[in-house]
């Protein structure tokens, strides 16, 4: 007896269709699985036998079962083939009748026959749809994430018995209702920018950064509000687009970071790993590598507080991905590439005691200590941060001021308007913000007025900017002009952008 059931496989974010072939011959009971299965797939044998028996169905123990997971040259990972393999057994032994051969099945089985959730359902459902599949059966706990995909019937399955009754037309399962995309509504209780007294220049710099997706370095003495400001950045980030939300949700689905009742990540993620994070924690890792913090922050913010406390090797992991927007992780089994288009925000003190360059307090560090401390942040990494901003200490008058600052909501409104201009500008290029412009797009969209050109030339020579810094100044100036609703990049825009590159001269003496 031979039968074939469809399923989907995942390698990183790449998915492919899988045929679960089953051949049953007579003889002593044996259950073999071929086609590059990993241990979890191999262990399916015990789960399938128990689940079938405990669902009131029959597992013929006087036959030889051979499963082949095709294509056989791709490694199959995890327990998601339990369900299609069980369906193949029931199909070959004529315990199910009905229309299921063109459908796709994914799900892990418990010994009792319950269907348990698996990782990566969203990318798999999208792949199935792209391959023309009409019906897909997924674990009930994963059906929310699958319900955002249009054009395919998604069925949430709680148990093997329930699925068998559905296929045999005894009791049908209703397909999941499509969940339309809705923008995230900022909850009222979140920390707000209006709580931060003074720091108008820093707030402005963060607004520019949020509008254009630029990387930021904040440097300042202890207690000046760096962490406080960073915590409020999610409240001023622009709305995530539908495509960005889908991409980010795929990563969360794959890494098992999507909660049961969360259909889609409809906000820009904000990840703030502790400085003890390992390079693999940041980049992603494992035998078959899973996404790390960098990819979990895709289309959102990666915040590194107390930057010099991070391991040097951890910091250096950032260099290429920050520039490319993707990270490739190579392991013996395979090399996988994940997207990581992030806005990197870093905060740090200027020296171990924290008061180097302070207007009123003396730095108590031994000679040379501030330079050593600052040198922990390498030049190439610093160069990748578009906006450098000093967070000065707040004085008593500012702190005791009873008047509230501008709210996050009103800053976000401006940010959203400026981002909308960028989305229109880059339509069809796959880019949604100024920070991610390629060199040729930068040349095209950052044409300077003659006065601005002159200013930039003078500053370039005076500040000794690198070629990368030159590009970054142009991109930041483009964002400032967008916030100003100005088509042209004028002198005032370039002046402000240059000001965001002068800080490294004060501390790093570049
Ligand atoms: N501008 C400000 N307005 C209102 N409160 C502030 C401001 N700056 C600092 N604070 C208060 O000081 C506390 C400490 O600030 P925060 O932790 O952000 O400092 P920091 O710059 O991150 O310091 P460190 O360098 O030590 O990490 C805040 O929780 C807040 O209560
Ligand atoms: Mg802090």
Question: Can you put this structure into words, describing what you see?
Answer:
36% of the residues lie in helices and 17% in strands. Helix 7 packs parallel to helix 17 and helix 7 crosses helix 20. By secondary structure, it is of the alpha/beta class. It is elongated. The strands form six sheets. The protein has a five-stranded parallel β-sheet with strand order 11-14-17-10-18. A four-stranded mixed β-sheet has the order 1-2-4-3. The relative contact order is 0.10. A hairpin with a 4-residue loop joins strand 12 and strand 13. The mean pLDDT is 90. The protein binds adenosine-5'-triphosphate (ATP) and magnesium ion (MG). The site of magnesium ion has 4 residues, from helix 8.
The percent of residues in helical segments reads 25-40%
**Which sequence of strands runs across the widest sheet?**
11-14-17-10-18
Portion in beta strands: 15-25%
Q: What is the number of beta strands?
A: 18
What's the CATH H-level superfamily name of the largest domain?
P-loop containing nucleotide triphosphate hydrolases
The helix-and-strand class reads: alpha/beta
| Major sheet details | 5 strands, parallel
CATH architecture of the largest domain: 3-Layer(aba) Sandwich
CATH overall fold name of the largest domain: Rossmann fold
Write down the oligomeric state: single chain
Shape verdict? elongated
Which class of the largest domain in CATH terms?
Alpha Beta
Our Rg estimate from Cα atoms comes to 28 Å
Domain tally: 2
Our count of helices gives 22
Determine the N-to-C terminus distance: 75 Å
Uncertain stretches: none
**Which whole number gives the mean pLDDT?**
90
Catalogue the ligands. Answer: adenosine-5'-triphosphate, magnesium ion
């Amino acid at each position: 007896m031979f039968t074939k059931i469809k399923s989907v496989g995942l390698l990183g974010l790449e998915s492919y269709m899988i045929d679960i072939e089953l051949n049953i011959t007579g003889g002593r009971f044996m259950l073999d699985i071929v086609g590059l299965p990993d241990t979890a797939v191999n262990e399916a044998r015990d789960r399938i036998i128990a689940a079938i028996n405990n669902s009131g169905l029959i597992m013929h123990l006087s036959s030889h079962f051979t499963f082949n997971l095709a294509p056989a040259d791709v490694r199959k990972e995890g327990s998601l083939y339990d369900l299609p393999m069980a369906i193949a057994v029931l199909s070959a032994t004529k315990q199910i009748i009905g229309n299921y051969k063109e459908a796709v099945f994914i799900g892990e089985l418990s010994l009792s026959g319950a269907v348990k959730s698996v990782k990566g359902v969203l990318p798999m459902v999208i792949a199935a749809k792209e391959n023309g599949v009409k019906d897909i059966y997924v674990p009930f706990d994963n059906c929310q994430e699958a319900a955002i995909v249009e054009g395919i019937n998604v069925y949430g399955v709680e148990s093997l018995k329930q699925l068998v009754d559905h296929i045999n037309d005894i009791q049908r399962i209703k397909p999941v209702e499509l969940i339309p995309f809705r923008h995230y509504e900022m909850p009222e209780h979140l920390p707000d920018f209006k709580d931060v007294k003074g720091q108008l220049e820093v707030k402005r710099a963060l607004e520019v950064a949020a509008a254009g997706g630029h990387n930021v370095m904040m440097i300042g003495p202890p207690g000046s509000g760096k962490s406080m400001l960073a915590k409020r950045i999610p409240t001023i980030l622009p709305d995530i687009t539908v495509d960005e939300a889908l991409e980010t949700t795929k990563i969360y689905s794959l890494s098992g970071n999507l909660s049961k009742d969360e259909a889609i990540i409809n906000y820009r993620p904000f990840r703030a790993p502790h400085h003890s994070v390992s390079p693999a924690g940041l980049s992603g890792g494992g035998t078959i590598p899973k996404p790390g913090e960098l990819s979990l922050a895709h289309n959102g913010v990666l915040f590194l507080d107390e930057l010099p406390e991070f391991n040097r090797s951890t910091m250096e992991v950032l260099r290429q991905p920050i520039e490319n927007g993707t990270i490739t992780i190579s392991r013996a089994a395979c090399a996988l590439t994940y997207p990581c288009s992030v806005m990197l925000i870093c905060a740090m003190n200027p020296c171990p005691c924290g008061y180097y360059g302070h207007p009123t307090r003396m730095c108590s560090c031994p000679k040379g200590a501030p330079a050593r401390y600052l040198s922990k942040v390498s030049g190439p990494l610093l160069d990748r941060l578009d906006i450098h901003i000093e967070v000065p200490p707040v004085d008593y008058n500012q702190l005791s001021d009873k008047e509230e600052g501008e709210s996050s909501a009103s800053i976000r409104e401006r940010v959203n308007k400026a981002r909308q201009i960028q989305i229109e500008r880059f339509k069809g290029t796959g880019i949604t913000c100024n920070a991610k412009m390629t060199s040729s797009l930068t040349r095209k969209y950052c044409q300077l007025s003659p006065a601005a050109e002159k200013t930039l030339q003078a500053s370039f020579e005076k500040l000794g900017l690198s070629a990368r810094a030159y590009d970054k100044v142009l991109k930041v100036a483009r964002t400032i002009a967008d916030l100003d609703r100005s088509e042209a990049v004028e002198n005032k825009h370039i002046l402000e952008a240059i000001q965001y590159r002068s800080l490294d001269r004060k501390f790093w003496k570049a």
